[in-house]
Amino acid sequence: MTLSTHDTAGHIYANGLRNQWHPVVPSRFVHPGGLRKVTALGEDWLLMRKADGTLSMLADRCPHRGAPLSLGKHLGDRVACWYHGVEVDGSGTVTSVPGLPGCNLEGKTLVRSLPVREVGGAILAYFGDEEHPEPVELTLPEPLTDPGVSSFLCYAEWNVPWRYAMENLLDPMHGAFLHHESHTMFDGDTTAKFRIRETARGYFFEKTDQRGVNFDWVELCRTGVDWVDLSIPYPPSAGPGGVFGIVGMVCPVDAGRTGVFFWRYREVAGWQRDTWRFLYKTLIEERHWQVLEQDRVILEAMPADADQRENLYQHDLGVVRLRRLYQAEAARQSTAAAPDPAA
Question: One Pfam family, short name please (predicted)?
């Protein structure tokens, strides 16, 4: 199995862009000595963790007869297919065919293995197509690598196309309406003007007439993995610390499902760090899940063709820019001929 350039641009746009890194699942989903089946970019994969914590990600398909390796047995540094016992290691190489020792399958790399990284409690994988198997350079979000920043990862799976989840993040104005009853986005004007401001790694979409009051800006960052950075004002009751920020990523599970990753972070140290983390787990986290639930409900209620029957206005410039970027990238990644309209 491989992600192919022969897939149409429409298929790629629906199921997720290739030749970049994507988050897959939280690290806690795969315990040492464990196997876990996951779906990403419309394909089935197997995550396998050795006892020492080393992680591998393989196509979930035995090279013998195609049975799911995720139903097999973990043998420490390899997995044995349940169907006929064929053993495959973390690099995708067949190490043993118990039914026929010395079989010519042994020693061959017949299962696709993806490069993986772990950061901030999440597993990231590089999904290259057949022409780009080597991973692109990955620059991780600064809030997830800065030792002076404390963060919590929130993960959920929504029954929405991945692009709807990304577009929601590039739409700051919904905060003043959908989240008006929340503990942080109740304030500010419900009218605004926006601008796009280019950066070396993406672009800002921001209000020109309000800052630090509501969900007033967001930055799209393309650094080998696509992520957004934004900040939300925090009331004094949230305890000590710097600005409250959110790093967001999405995993295109398939054309209709998305894994959403939100790291809530603050730059905070010492006793203030302990206080912030205590308050978050005992009080604030529940409120944040309520906000995410509002996003889930509205997005899952939208029809599948919602983006085909719209009447957009100035507040939607960030969404329009995102769509054009992703549609162009999907077209570049596909060598499939466009259908002949006369056919």
Answer: VanA_C
Structure tokens at 150: 């404390």
Residues β-bridged to residue 56: 48
Q: Are 299 and 164 in contact (CB under 8 A)?
A: yes
Residue type, 21: W
Instruction: Write out pLDDT tens, residues 150-186.
Output: 999 999 999 999 999 999 999 988 888 888 776 565 5
Pick from 266, 226, 22: nearest CA to 122: 22
Find tokens 């039914």 and name the residue: 99
Other C-beta atoms closer than 10 Å to the C-beta of 198 total 8
DSSP-derived pairing of the beta strands 35-40 and 113-114: unpaired
pLDDT, tens only, 281-297: 988 888 889 989 999 99
> To which residue do tokens 């429409």 refer?
10
Tokens of 195: 């601008």
Q: How far apart are CA 102 and CA 106, in angstroms?
A: 7
Average pLDDT over residues 80-84: 97
Ranking 90-104, 145-159, 198-212 by mean pLDDT, the lowest is: 198-212
CATH classification (class only), 142-328: alpha beta
d(CA 51, CA 33): 5
Q: What is the pLDDT of residue 1?
A: 53
Q: Which carries the bigger pLDDT value, residue 49 or residue 315?
A: 49
pLDDT band for 338, please (50, 70, 90 cuts). Answer: low
Contact 23, 261 (CB under 8 A): yes
The DSSP code sequence of 150-167 is: EEEEEEEEESS-HHHHHH
Edge-to-edge strand ranges of the sheet holding 87-89 = 73-74, 78-80, 87-89, 94-96
Computed over every residue of the chain, the mean pLDDT equals 91
- Single-letter amino acid, residue 35: L
| Nearest-angstrom CA–CA distance, 41 and 17 | 8
DSSP letter at 276? H
Architecture of domain 27-118: 3-layer Sandwich (2.102)
